[in-house]
Amino acid sequence: MQRYIVVRLSHALLALFAVSIIVFSLARVSGNPMDVLLPDDATEQDFIQTAELWGLDKPLHIQYLVYLSNIFRGNFGVSIKWPGQSTRDLIMARLPATLQLSALSLIVAAGIALPLGMLVAVKKDTSVDYAGKVVALLGQSAPSFWVGVVLIWIFAVTLGWLPASGRDGIANIILPAFALGWFQVAAVMRLTRSSMLEVLDSEYVKLARIKGIPEWKVIWKHCLRNAAIAPLTYFGFILGGFLTGSVVIETVFAWPGVGLLAINALRARDFQVVQSVVLFFAVVYILSNLFVDILYAYLDPRIRYTT
Amino acid sequence: MANIANYWLSPAISARSRCLRMVAQARQYPLLSLLVFLFVLVTPAIFADFIAPHDPIRGNILERLMPPAWLDGGSWNHPLGTDKLGRDVLSRIIFGARISLTIAVISIICGGIVGTTLGLIAGYFGGLWDHIIMRSVDIKISIPSILLALILSAAMGPSYITVIIVVALTLWTRYARLVRGEVLALRNQDFISRAQVSGCSTARILSHHLLPNVVNTIIVLATLEVGVVIILEASLSFLGAGIPPPNPAWGLMVADGRALVINAWWVSFFPGLAILLTVLSMNLLGDWLRDKLDPKLRNL
Predict the structure, then answer these.
(1) Out of A19, A130, A153, closest to residue B143 by CB
(2) ipTM score assigned to the predicted complex
(3) How many whole angstroms separate alpha carbon A274 and alpha carbon A277?
(4) For residues A258 and A87, is the Cβ–Cβ distance under 8 A?
(5) Contact B240/A263, CB-based, under 8 Å?
């Protein structure tokens, strides 16, 4: 177990360093980092501030060390578009919104995919099963931003049941959460179906039926627990997908999260904010993958012996 | 096609069940999927200049926001309506097919060549090369493509090159892993050791003996990847980190229409539908091809 943890930790550290190097070099690839780090309407004061912060007058390797030390101290730079605010403050202010959205879409995706997957497994080869396959096919082929826009059109514009954007009340989170969770429903549903089919064939299910336990109890009490293991582990792997998917969905629904911050900063050519958000997301992504890997190695000892 | 006739003539199956079953088993009718794919993507892409009724970039402001032809206020001059600058939606979708297809072909070729080469090297030589290449794959996988596209277009500006670089970088890792797995299985077989003993150069072994055996896998992966590429490119264009305006990229069109969805739903709906149909038919085609060529890839 220790060896596995050490190996995975070293991979994660390597990945983190690689991300920092990539972000660092992209800002300086055009020769003059000022062109990238500052937008056109930057003032003289901004120039001086930025040069001082990132050590732009020093040689490249010193710049990288300055950059790393800034990152470790939590100083990600200052924003030009939102003057006077450090990018870290900007991110922290918007982080709760993104976390809410991701958490709710995870629940929505699990809540739709698991029962649906169980249903199509129980009713295998009937019209319910085929309908499920069609839903899965469509779910994987429709781009999430388009699904979001269509949902807005149906539920906000045509029916008027739900608001189209913003974050004013409970109703505002429903459409974005559904649009974000929808993309994962198809894959999880297929996984649940195959996992459920395996469980339905097993000996203890046969015994339960022979004992005369009602069918609904067999499915919900005995099969669900075992069939849910595979899809739930899959959720661990796609946590990162929710994070990056939130960038698109927040843009569609104007949900004031970290993703929308990045897109607005991109449009305003505020590179320091974009850089911070990318670093932040990448670190969260890498660390969550590391955590999930170690957790599953703990839960399933067979994994400890794979590299 | 005889199966369809049997289904429809059989009285015991309800109509609804028949329809659903046919759709779900569409993967067994690759011809249909291929035709949809050709219709939606390839034909318009190649013959856009001849097929599209209007110019995709210059629009007639007087005809802005016209609804599709079958609604009030629409005309068959603009069958799918016009956008806020008076540009014909159908023509833009047709030219957008060219953009999607170009990006897909170039990125898959670039990513495929790089990934296959690295996979062959990693699988055949093993040891340090394998280690380096697989660690690079892990590093790349740790960085989500959308974030990479964001940082790249923030540094270089959104453009065709940005999209191709991001997509090719996303794809190469899958080719590398897959080809490496295949080569590991083939490396210990007799025909390789005979080739080595008979004095074949390494390059020759890789290109003449190993590569033809992994070609099936590469082709299947390529067809399965077209859908991924199209959705990725559309997402990047939607965010403003991909193809820049005024190019008629499908993702860009959905982004434009997002602001107009209250009174002009068609500007977003039809480009997105084009994406859906293309990706759907490509997925079905890829599934069929995989079943025919290399069923081991079933969990891909």
Answers:
(1) A19
(2) 0.85
(3) 5
(4) no
(5) yes
Q: Which domains occur in chain A, in start order?
A: 94-267+285-297 (1.10.3720.10)
Asked if A27 has any chain B CB less than 8 Å from its own CB, the reply is yes
CB contact under 8 A, A244 and B147: yes
Partner-chain contact B269 A150, CB within 8 Å: yes
Residues of B in contact with A134 (CB under 8 A): 20, 23-24
Residues A1-47 pLDDT 10s = 788 889 889 888 888 888 888 888 887 776 677 777 777 777 788 77
When scoring B159, B258, B262, B279 by the number of chain A Cβ atoms within 10 A, the one with the most, hence best to mutate, is B258
Q: Output the six-digit token pair for A282.
A: 């990448």
pTM for this one? 0.85
Residue from B238, B227, B242, B222 nearest B148 by CA: B242
Cα(A253)–Cα(B238) distance, rounded to whole angstroms? 13
B142 and A285: CB-CB below 8 Å? yes
Q: Is the pLDDT of residue A95 over 80?
A: yes
Q: What is the pLDDT of residue A64?
A: 85
d(C-alpha B284, C-alpha B293), whole Å: 14
Identify all chain A residues contacting B231, using CB atoms and an 8 Å cutoff. 143
Q: Is 60 exceeded by the pLDDT of residue B191?
A: yes
- What is the rounded distance in angstroms from the CA atom of residue A277 to the CA atom of residue A88? 9
- pLDDT of B300 > 80? The answer is no
Domains and CATH numbers, chain B: 33-54+89-293 (1.10.3720.10)
**Measured between CB atoms, does A274 come within 8 Å of chain B?**
yes
Q: Point out the residue among B151, B235, B283 whose CB comes nearest to the CB of A274.
A: B151
Distance in Å, alpha carbon of B212 to nearest chain A alpha carbon: 29
Distance from CA of A132 to the nearest CA of B (A): 9
Tell me, what's the pLDDT at B296?
63
pLDDT at residue B29 in the model: 65
Q: Please give the Cα distance from B68 to B89 (Å, whole number).
A: 9
* Cβ count near B81 (within 10 Å): 25
Which pLDDT tens digit goes with each residue over B250-285?
Answer: 999 999 999 888 888 899 999 999 999 889 888 888
